Amino acid sequence: MNDLHTEFGQVKIHGILEFGTAADWIQRKTEDHKIDLVVMGTKGDTDNANSIFGSVTSHVINNLKCPVLVVPKGARSFHVNEVLFATDFHFTDNAAEYLSPFLAVANAYEPFIHVAQFTANKPAGSHIKNIEELKLSGLLRDTKHSFHIVEGADTEKALFSFAEKYHCDLIVTVTRHYSLWEKIFHQSLTKKLVLHSEIPVLVLHEY
Predict the structure, then answer these.
(1) Alpha carbon distance 171, 190 (integer Å)
(2) HSE toward the beta carbon, residue 39, CA cutoff 13 A
(3) Per-residue pLDDT tens for 90-122?
């Protein structure tokens, strides 16, 4: 705590020590105090990655409603020059609301945003239509950005390869409400993303 106060003296820091299940405790405190952002560190595959319900980090991501910023072990600084926004281009009417933390980061750091959809199939007309709809929505009108459709059977590998190619400093993604089987698949992918990523991941929640 003393080190944090020394390094971030301008930020008010309040420490809490309690007993209980970490994931449940984080969720309860986040709801009780109306937290705007949860920041968590992860140690990679050693972070309980082989348990049935996944790591504390992936559990928090899939159960909290507020944004979660996951910082991997070894990250020493936070520069945001290039951002990968991984999306399926499907946005609800309140997209501006749940994307606001991401857009706030974009306004503060003015990065270049790579908006990309990762698909196992060849791009179809629907992919192009979704991009056009996003352009018309104006959500990214005040940002520097480009659109990409990336084909690859291994979504995780394709995503990380893209991030490395464009020297991305941050990965942004959105979680949604799914059916049971879709949720199991999505949680598996999210878990891989947060446990294997070497750069910070910002997870937003559609609501």
Answers:
(1) 12
(2) 4
(3) 777 788 888 898 999 899 999 999 999 888 776
What are the beta bridge partners of residue 201?
70, 171
Query: How far is residue 157 from each of residues 69, 108, 119, 137, 161, measured CA to CA in Å?
Result: 21, 30, 12, 30, 6
Number of domains in the chain: 1
Confidence of residue 125 (pLDDT cuts 50, 70, 90): low
Determine the Cα–Cα distance for residues 166 and 114; give it in Å rounded to an integer: 9
Cβ-based neighbours of 142, under 8 Å, separated by 6 or more: 106, 107
* Residues paired with 90 in a beta bridge: none
SS3 144: strand
Instruction: Give 71's strand partners.
Output: 41
Enclosing domain of residue 61: 1-207
> Rounded distance, CA 175 to CA 186, Å?
8
Q: Return all residues near 181 (Cβ < 8 A) that are at least 6 apart.
A: none
Look-up: residue for tokens 């405190």? 29
Most trustworthy range by pLDDT among 71-75, 120-124, 177-181: 71-75
For the purposes of burial, counting CB atoms within 10 Å of the CB of 206, is it exposed (0-12), middle (13-18) or buried (19 or more)? middle
Tokens linked to 202: 């910002």
**What distance in Å separates the CA atoms of residue 198 and residue 6, rounded to the nearest whole number?**
27
